[in-house]
């Protein structure tokens, strides 16, 4: 009798296991396969600005010099000549009443479906700017700039700080994808009304545009498209 009960119990267990396998109760017999991702990639874009020379050219824009020079040229598309080329900028020394223009050329590259960027000018204003670090009295000096992006030159703008983009409310975008030429003109003027003692002290000094502690720079900053 005991053998019959044992056989019956074993048969029930075997049947239960078989039913469990049929219903997916066991994992060791289920099939599985996989396939790797193929052909998918995500590429990043590019944002860069490079300067060609330092500076490319310099011009004397002092009105009396321009008026009396046979080499005067039309620098900013004015009706009359407005500048005289300076042959050796490194040896040129300024005196009260002088205005000079320094030309710097850059190439801007922007690559990306949603790329946009603004240009900023850093390192001029305040005691930490080039006038302050050069020991010059800012009361008798003025630094303005013009900027040309893709060929169109802006009006003369007095430099105040580095919070406003040079190109206004319209950031550079896809038009710069292939490398957009950017020309920065720094216009430096030494006021001729220099009767104060402090102005007389502005002799034999150097305005260093590439001072190691505070280099003037053109900054390209990404912004999100508006």
Describe, in short, the structure shown.
Helix content is 15%, strand content 27%. It is of the alpha+beta class and 226 residues long.
Describe the protein in words.
The chain has 226 residues and is of the alpha+beta class. The strands form two sheets. Strands 1, 2, 3, 4, 6, 7, 8 and 9 form an eight-stranded antiparallel β-sheet that branches. Strands 5-10 form a two-stranded antiparallel sheet. A hairpin with a 2-residue loop joins strand 6 and strand 7. The protein has helices at 2-22, 63-67, 130-134, 197-200, and strands at residues 46-51, 57-60, 84-85, 99-111, 117-122, 141-149, 152-153, 157-158, 180-190, 217-222. The chain has one domain (46-222).
Number of domains: 1
Q: What is the terminal separation in angstroms?
A: 90 Å
Let me know the average pLDDT. 74
- Individual helix count: 4
Strand content: 25-35%
Topology of this protein?
Layout: H1 2-22, E1 46-51, E2 57-60, H2 63-67, E3 84-85, E4 99-111, E5 117-122, H3 130-134, E6 141-149, E7 152-153, E8 157-158, E9 180-190, H4 197-200, E10 217-222
Antiparallel strand pairs: 1-4, 2-3, 2-4, 4-9, 5-10, 6-7, 6-8, 6-9
Brief descriptors of the model:
single chain, alpha+beta, elongated, 15% helix, 226 residues
């Amino acid at each position: 009798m005991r053998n019959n009960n044992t056989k019956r119990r074993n048969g029930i267990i075997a049947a239960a296991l078989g039913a469990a396998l049929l219903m997916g109760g066991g994992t060791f017999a289920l099939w599985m396969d996989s396939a790797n991702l193929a052909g998918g990639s995500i590429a990043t874009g590019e944002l860069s600005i490079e300067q060609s020379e330092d500076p490319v050219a310099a011009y004397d824009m002092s009105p009396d010099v321009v008026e009396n020079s046979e080499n005067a040229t039309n620098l900013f598309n004015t009706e009359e000549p407005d500048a005289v080329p300076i042959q050796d900028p490194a040896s040129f020394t300024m005196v009260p009443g002088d205005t000079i223009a320094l030309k710097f050329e850059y190439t801007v590259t922007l690559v990306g479906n949603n790329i946009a960027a603004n240009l900023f000018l850093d390192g001029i204003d305040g005691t930490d700017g080039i006038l302050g670090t050069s020991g010059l009295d800012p009361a008798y000096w003025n630094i303005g700039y013009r900027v040309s992006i893709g060929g169109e030159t802006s009006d003369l703008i007095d430099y105040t700080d580095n919070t406003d983009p040079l190109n206004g409310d319209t950031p550079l975008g896809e038009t710069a994808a292939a490398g957009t030429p950017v020309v920065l003109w720094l216009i430096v003027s030494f006021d001729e009304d220099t009767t104060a003692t402090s102005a007389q002290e502005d002799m034999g000094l150097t305005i260093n545009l590439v001072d190691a502690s505070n280099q003037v720079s053109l900054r390209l900053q990404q912004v999100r498209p508006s």
